């Protein structure tokens, strides 16, 4: 079974978006280099960021996100991002009207059901959980194996928190991956068990 990874780009003060759901400069690092990150060539990063990010993306089988992220991205128009096979959406609402039933998106009620569905779909590939409220709920449920973050040198002051509304202490091990790119620091922490 694949590891469950909570992930996002994040400000140094722990926010994944501002109060208006805008990421500001959090994704500028994806345009800060000269190495194409995918086939489109639209994203260009430093060599260090390429090696780190491409290796990570290639391991992901399923992404879990909340309905809020799904709606903000217009459901990626029915095509999972970054070459991921499936997206599991945590929601209390039905799929959008007119949604293509063949699109590899699965709508479930609750984070435990989302992780179970993702594990079924991912096999031994990674399960990525979008940071924020849903990521925080998965963390609080004890279902996260590791935390990955792309720390960007900006202070937001307020906004949408990386760990959502988690209010309990959760210990992580020392980072076992620390990679410096252009305008980003890639970190990986395993959860203490």
Textual characterization of the structure:
The chain is an alpha/beta fold and 193 residues long. It has one domain (4-29, 60-190): Dihydrofolate Reductase, subunit A (3-Layer(aba) Sandwich). It contains four helices and twelve strands. It has helices at 47-57, 67-72, 111-122, 133-140, and strands at 4-11, 15-17, 35-36, 44-45, 60-66, 86-90, 105-108, 126-130, 146-152, 160-161, 177-181, 184-190. The two termini are 17 Å apart.
Describe the secondary structure blueprint for this structure.
Layout: E1 4-11, E2 15-17, E3 35-36, E4 44-45, H1 47-57, E5 60-66, H2 67-72, E6 86-90, E7 105-108, H3 111-122, E8 126-130, H4 133-140, E9 146-152, E10 160-161, E11 177-181, E12 184-190
Parallel strand pairs: 1-8, 1-9, 5-6, 5-8, 6-7
Antiparallel strand pairs: 2-10, 3-4, 9-12, 11-12
